[in-house]
Write a structure and sequence with these properties.
The protein is an alpha+beta fold. The chain has one domain: Alpha-Beta Plaits. The protein is built from five helices and four strands. The longest helix is centred in the N-terminal third of the chain and has 16 residues.
Length: about 160
């Protein structure tokens, strides 16, 4: 969309606290995966945490849940977000998410369009997620299936380069 960027919020609930050995591999990879995301063509912004190594944005809790962690980013387009999600190291971790995260019984991922230059707050993002949960996909809040441009998601496959 001209003059618009794509925001996304992903909420996860860890199986254990961030300092627990059961989630150590995931926590130890956060800086590498987030750093790679920041260098991707089309990356615009990420909500950062304390900046402490290996913490990502684990301080931002949804609903006060100590095991909930969030990822809130902005991308230039659907295609640039899809490329990062499905064609990079991110996908290798995505495919193993059940090793570190609970399976949530409701929608935990949302996207929406924002004006270029806008940096959404966590509160704004959670409101979009709640809207998606209550109303389903719409122009206000949506998942991958709402986006006609989403091609890699439809394939549900990570490229072989993801493991490199």
């Amino acid at each position: 969309m001209n003059g618009m960027h794509l925001a996304e919020l992903n909420v996860g609930r860890l199986l254990a606290p961030t300092d627990d050995p059961r989630v150590a591999e995931f926590m130890n990879a956060l800086d590498r995966v987030n750093g790679m995301g920041k260098r991707m063509p089309g990356f615009v912004w990420i909500m950062e945490g304390s900046g402490a190594p290996g913490t990502g944005n684990t301080e931002a809790k949804v609903g006060g849940d100590p095991l909930a962690i969030t990822n809130l980013t902005v991308w230039e387009s659907v295609e640039t977000l899809e490329h990062f999600v499905w064609n990079t190291l991110h996908c290798a971790f995505y495919e193993r998410r059940q090793e570190w995260f609970e399976v949530l019984g409701r929608m935990h991922f949302v996207m929406w369009w924002v004006p270029a230059g806008h940096r959404p707050t966590l509160e704004e993002a959670v409101a979009r997620l709640e809207h998606l949960r209550a109303q389903g996909d719409s122009d206000h809040a949506f998942g991958w299936k709402w986006l006609k441009e989403a091609r890699l998601w439809r394939q549900h496959g990570c490229a072989r380069v993801a493991a490199e």
